[in-house]
Design a protein that fits this description.
The complex is a heterodimer of chains A (about 625) and B (about 450).
Chain A (H helix, E strand, L loop, with lengths): L34 H9 L2 E4 L6 H5 L4 E4 L8 H6 L6 H10 L6 E5 L3 H13 L4 E5 L7 H22 L5 H6 L11 E6 L4 H10 L4 E3 L21 H6 L4 H19 L22 E9 L5 H11 L4 E6 L6 H16 L2 H5 L9 H4 L6 E7 L3 E8 L4 E8 L4 H16 L8 E5 L11 E2 L2 H12 L5 E5 L4 E6 L5 E6 L8 H10 L4 H7 L14 H13 L4 H22 L6 E4 L6 H11 L3 E3 L6 H14 L1
Parallel strand pairs in A: 1-2, 1-3, 3-4, 5-6, 5-7, 7-8, 9-12, 12-13, 14-17, 17-18
Antiparallel strand pairs in A: 9-10, 10-11, 14-15, 15-16
Chain B lengths: L7 H21 L3 H21 L7 H19 L4 E4 L6 H5 L3 E4 H10 L3 H10 L8 H12 L8 E4 L9 H9 L3 E4 L7 H22 L5 H21 L12 H13 L4 H16 L6 E6 L7 H7 L5 E6 L18 H10 L7 H14 L4 E7 L3 H15 L5 E6 L9 H21 L1 H7 L1
Helix pairs in contact in B: 1-2, 2-3, 3-11, 3-12, 5-7, 6-7, 9-14, 10-12, 13-17, 15-16
The chains are: A alpha/beta (about 625), B alpha/beta (about 450).
Protein name (chain B): 2-hydroxyacyl-CoA dehydratase family protein
InterPro entries (chain B): FldB/FldC_alpha/beta
Family (chain B): Belongs to the FldB/FldC dehydratase alpha/beta subunit family.
């Protein structure tokens, strides 16, 4: 039985009507409106909307202000309570947004399961003055055009009754913004609704502009024909009743507008989505960031096709619609930007402090390059000389303060090398904490650095499997050691070092003992769940069944291997494989991975230094 | 209430099935044809068991439902040239009247899970990029197709009811198989206009089927099937008041099998016979005064801890589920069988799983009222956002009538997403609460007195 529910706060002016729209409320202005009343009145002319199929131009024809919903809720408490936690983040943000007191009018479409249920939940709450669901056909044809026109007409009638405003075709026509096809050099953001944090992170990560063509971003309705706004002929007036001029303008507008709105670039919920292929490989498009959202069914499937057929590089990023995974996003996006640039050295240091002055002018001074990898578990540092020979290296645990750990790693490696900070020609940071390391000249993502470092350690390697504490990555290299493709785990901890740590905690074992015990397995035990929470539940059940701990750990190792195999398949990884990251020290996982991939997975004694080494090497190469 | 007791025989049975499933897992990637062969053999053995060695602990009607549900899959797999791949909500009378075999994705996935083979299918889907949060029924379907276990079909037809997955999986498979695909778009609200719109699509589907399979549709036969459908659903409604005081020896698996039979084979003589048999069985069944639980959505029929609590238990029984009553109407139909396309369209638009959450909740309320349910379990199947989003509205609707609701999260198809122990604890606690509430009711005290 779930916890008892407390009713949602219900606004005093909200009408609770089971119909599609709310009743119209009247205000007593005889004593003059108060500020609050004026504000409330203004809010009642603002329509919020999430979907590109909402008839924005029609509603502007009534003088309404239309505001797209790009709200990113920090808490899903209300949505979880009123609906369910396993809805997409955008749907839950929408519910949270609609519960804000200043949001009075909301128009949705039946575009997906979550939007339909968001409507149901909000209708049941009765928290809005005007709430409307436009039923959106899945098919495109004359019958659907007619159905959609009727839907728009119903909405127009309801809004006219609610707002008391008449439709003005001129206002509606003025609301159109003509579509201008872009041909400038740019990256396209495609896929599920792009939350603000993703848009910001994308714009910051790329050297070129970003074009937003996500579910809620790419709204382009054809421009109306010039004669649509023309006043009807006088003769026509005489034959009609008193309301004829206005009605006929609206009807003529709807006749044209309904198909125009319905036939814009289809979103994935439409039955025929072939037109979407024209969004890929357009002039000037250098790459595509493809966004999928947890619990949004549609967009993962388009990515499947896109990844196989796109003529431009594609990066998939998955979010839960919140800003919480921004750190991981930045790494992926920046790495993709580096991949798109193709030649890291040419643009890498243009923002560095020292690259343009000291490093290039002080030719007499001996060259030392420092690479620092600030990871979630350890912070690693490497110093190389001008010949690329390793002068010193250090690995220190990343404590609670990444900056302090970086300082400690740098001090250690400088001490071991017998150098001072001033002796370093160039310092390159990488890893999660790369932006926080003080006094570095530049930073490169750990994906590019791992690739370069691994190529140095084992030039024959074509795929790096990096399983760290926070995330896991599969990086595919070309013959020259450049990143050809890569994939990272989602926000979920499955298939990461954290997953194994949590399972070790469940079994009440220290991690090193946990790793060693897994090698003593006798019988295959299947942990079928990839989800950490469910897997923990399975482990508890197995313990209750007296299953030997070694067998359980072996099952967990296999579970991690299975998750990594899925990632590897996604980027068509091939051997030889090299495993890096902290989990490379877990022999059980390495063996399981080899079995899952059907190939040997090598490790290297310096694999933990891979990122720092790659950073130093890339730095050194940039000086040459 | 029956306590949970571990049974060695049961564990052995599960172990054998798991070993068999592991063998499937090992061979699936390299030899999907062998996997398909083994699966069909397993289904055929099970089908033979439903005829030769039926489960004597269940009522005759339940045995028939089991056989019919299984036959809906085996018959289709045995006649690959006459198969139409479809979903559970699209009316099947057209296919039946043309002698075609509708293979419902949900039925196939259910029996793959019954054979303990779903992990390999789910894994194949996820390794090919299907999102982890996608509905497991559809993951099994797609995984089977990606792995080559499910062979290309000649025709795919489905509808927009009840969820987005229907709008994705079939489209993707049609592209992969290179076969014709008809998608019936169903508006949320019933009106004569929307009914004509859907009827037109169904009629067009009939035309395309005739072209694709090179056979004619006998209009009289279609009318006959639609008439049988209406009679069958009427019988089903008549079973409701009989259920609460009779021990119907139901269970999660049986309820799902009933649901499959009433969708895949609705309109056939077999299913009309099933509905009559249910009426007879329920009238003649032993008396029962335990708890009556209404179930909403799919059920984790594979879960041993839940089976011990719910299946054939004299203390509590699943009295009905909305998966069996989604198509029924408690009012007369607007369209008679002599307008077969309009009649099928009406049923489809009015389906409890179509449209808003309010309608779904209202249908449950009416079913609960007629079968005097003590409480309801709303099962939020992994990835089923339609049910998840409606769960609290259903809860409010039923609790307003004094019927407590348990919202139970899990997966009706993939064991890996189902936390057995936790779910059983929650369910048992809910049943204990219902028992306590029942004991406090004054009319119950009078009876005891």
């Amino acid at each position: 039985m779930e916890e008892p529910r407390t009713p949602a706060p219900r606004r005093t002016k909200a009408a609770v009507a089971p119909s599609r729209s709310r009743d119209v409320h009247t205000y007593d202005f005889s004593a003059g409106p108060t500020n609050a009343e004026v504000q409330a009145r203004q809010q009642r002319t603002v329509i919020h909307y999430p979907c590109k199929y909402v008839p924005v131009e029609l509603l502007r024809g009534f003088g309404a202000t239309l505001v797209p919903v790009d709200f990113e809720a920090e808490s899903f408490e209300d949505a979880d309570r009123l609906a369910h936690p396993n809805l997409c983040g955008y749907g839950k943000s929408l519910i949270a947004y609609a519960l804000k007191p200043e949001v009075r009018c909301l128009v949705l479409t039946s575009c997906c399961d979550v939007m339909r249920r968001a409507y149901d939940v909000l209708a049941a709450q009765g928290c809005l003055d005007f709430l409307w669901l436009v039923d959106l056909p899945h098919l495109l044809g004359p019958a659907e055009d007619a159905r959609f026109r009727e839907e728009l007409e119903r909405l127009a009638d309801a809004w006219a009754a609610f707002s008391g405003e008449a439709f003005d075709v001129g206002r509606a026509i003025a609301a159109f913004s003509p579509k201008v096809p872009r041909s400038d050099e740019r990256v396209t953001l495609l896929g599920a609704h792009g939350p603000k944090s993703l848009l910001t992170a994308t714009e910051e990560a790329f050297e070129v502009p970003v074009e937003n063509l996500t579910c809620t971003g790419g709204r382009f309705v054809a421009s109306p024909p010039p004669d649509l706004g023309r006043a009807p002929q006088r003769a026509c007036h005489l034959e009609c009743d008193a309301s004829a001029p206005e009605t006929s303008a609206r009807e003529r507008f709807l006749d044209w507008y309904a198909p125009a709105l319905l036939h814009q670039m289809p979103c994935l919920r439409m039955a025929d989505v072939r037109a979407r292929e024209t969004q890929v490989g357009t002039p000037g498009q250098t790459g595509i960031v493809y966004h999928t959202m947890k619990f949004c069914d549609y967009y993962g499937f388009e990515y499947l096709q896109l990844a196989a057929e796109s003529p431009v590089p594609v990066l998939k990023v998955e979010t839960d619609g919140t800003a919480q995974s921004a750190g991981q996003l930045r790494t992926r996006l920046k790495a993709f930007d580096e991949t798109l640039a193709g030649n890291v050295e040419t643009h890498l240091f243009k923002r560095g402090k020292r690259a343009d002055n000291e490093a290039e002018t002080d030719v007499e001074k001996a060259v030392y390059v420092l690479g620092v990898d600030s990871g979630s578990t350890s912070t690693d540092a490497v110093i190389l000389d001008a010949d690329g020979q390793r002068v010193a290296s250090a690995i220190v645990p990343t404590g609670s303060k990444a900056t302090e750990s970086a300082r400690k790693a740098i001090d250690t490696v400088l001490g071991d090398a017998g150098l001072e900070r001033e002796d370093i020609t160039l310092a390159v940071a990488t890893g999660y904490g790369r932006e926080g390391i003080p006094d570095m000249d530049t930073s490169i993502t750990e994906i590019t650095c791992h690739a370069r470092g691994a190529h140095e350690l084992a030039p024959e390697v074509r795929t790096i499997i990096d399983i760290g504490g926070q995330d896991s990555k599969v990086i595919v290299l070309d013959d020259a050691g450049n990143v050809a493709n890569f994939v990272m785990n989602d926000k979920c901890a499955a298939g990461t070092g954290r997953f194994l740590e949590m399972m070790a905690r469940t079994l009440e074992m220290p991690l090193d003992q946990f790793c060693a015990a897994g090698l003593q397995w006798k019988k295959d035990v299947k942990i079928s769940s990839m989800c950490t929470v469910f897997a923990e539940s399975e482990v508890v059940s197995l313990v209750a069944d007296d299953t030997p701990v070694a067998d359980i750990i072996h099952g967990l190792d296999n579970s991690v291997a299975s998750k990594i195999k899925s990632l590897a398949k996604r980027v068509k990884a091939t051997g030889p494989y090299l495993m890096t990251g902290g989990v490379a020290n877990n022999e059980g996982v390495v063996t399981a991975l080899g079995e899952a991939l059907g190939a040997d997975v090598a490790t290297h004694e310096d694999s933990q230094l891979c990122g720092a080494l790659g950073a130093a090497l890339l730095g050194l190469e940039s000086l040459r | 209430m029956a306590r949970t007791v571990k049974c060695d025989d049961e564990k052995l049975g599960i172990k054998i099935l798991d070993t068999w499933a592991e063998a499937i897992d090992n061979v699936m990637e390299e030899r999907p044809d062998i996997t398909a062969f083994w699966l069909l053999k397993a289904f055929q053995v099970k089908r033979a068991q439903t005829v030769v060695l039926p489960d004597r602990k269940t009522l005759p009607s339940a045995r028939l439902a089991s056989r019919l549900a299984l036959e809906s899959v085996t018959d289709a797999l045995e006649h690959p040239d006459d198969v139409v791949l479809t979903s559970i909500f699209l009316p099947n009378e057209l296919f039946q009247a043309m002698g075609l075999y509708p293979l419902m994705a949900e039925a196939l996935a259910n029996f793959v899970t019954g054979a303990h083979a779903e992990p390999s299918f789910v894994q194949a889907a996820e390794q090919n990029g299907v999102p982890e949060t996608y509905c497991s029924f559809h993951k099994v379907l797609l995984g089977g197709a990606f792995a080559g276990v499910i062979e290309p079909v000649r025709f795919i037809a489905n509808c927009s009811v009840a969820c987005d997955a229907n709008n994705i999986s079939f489209k993707l498979l049609a592209r992969r198989f290179g076969c014709p695909h008809v998608y019936v778009d169903v508006p949320p609200e019933y009106s004569e206009e929307s009914c004509s719109y859907v009827a037109g699509q169904l009629e067009a589907l009939g035309t395309q089927l005739q072209e694709a399979y090179g056979r004619a549709l006998d209009p009289d036969l279609l009318v006959e099937h639609v008439a049988r459908s209406q009679r069958t659903l009427k019988n089903l409604v008549r079973t409701l008041p009989l259920r609460p005081t009779r021990f119907i020896k139901n269970g999660m698996g049986l309820e799902m099998q009933h649901a499959l039979a009433f969708h895949a084979l609705l309109g056939t003589e077999d299913v009309e016979h099933l509905s009559k048999l249910m009426l007879r069985d329920y009238r003649e069944a032993d008396g029962y005064d335990g708890l009556n639980l209404l179930w909403s959505a799919t059920a984790p029929f594979f879960s041993s801890p839940l089976q011990r609590v719910l299946d054939s238990n004299t203390s509590q029984q699943i009295v009905a589920s909305d998966m069996c009553f989604d198509q029924v109407s408690f009012e007369p139909w607007a369209h008679e069988p002599d307008e077969p396309y309009l009649a099928m369209a009406e049923r489809l638009i009015k389906n409890a799983y179509n449209g808003g959450a309010e309608r779904r909740a209202e249908q449950l309320r009416r079913v609960a009222e007629r079968c005097d349910a003590d409480g309801c379990v709303v099962f939020c199947h992994w990835g089923c956002k339609e049910t998840m989003g409606a769960s609290q509205i259903i809860r409010q609707t039923l609790e307003a009538e004094g019927r407590p609701v348990l919202v139970l999260d899990g997966d009706g198809c993939n064991r890996a997403n189902f936390p057995d122990g936790q779910a059983a604890t929650r369910l048992e606690a809910f049943l204990e609460m219902l028992e306590a509430e029942r004991a406090e009711k004054p009319d119950n005290d009078e009876e005891v007195a």
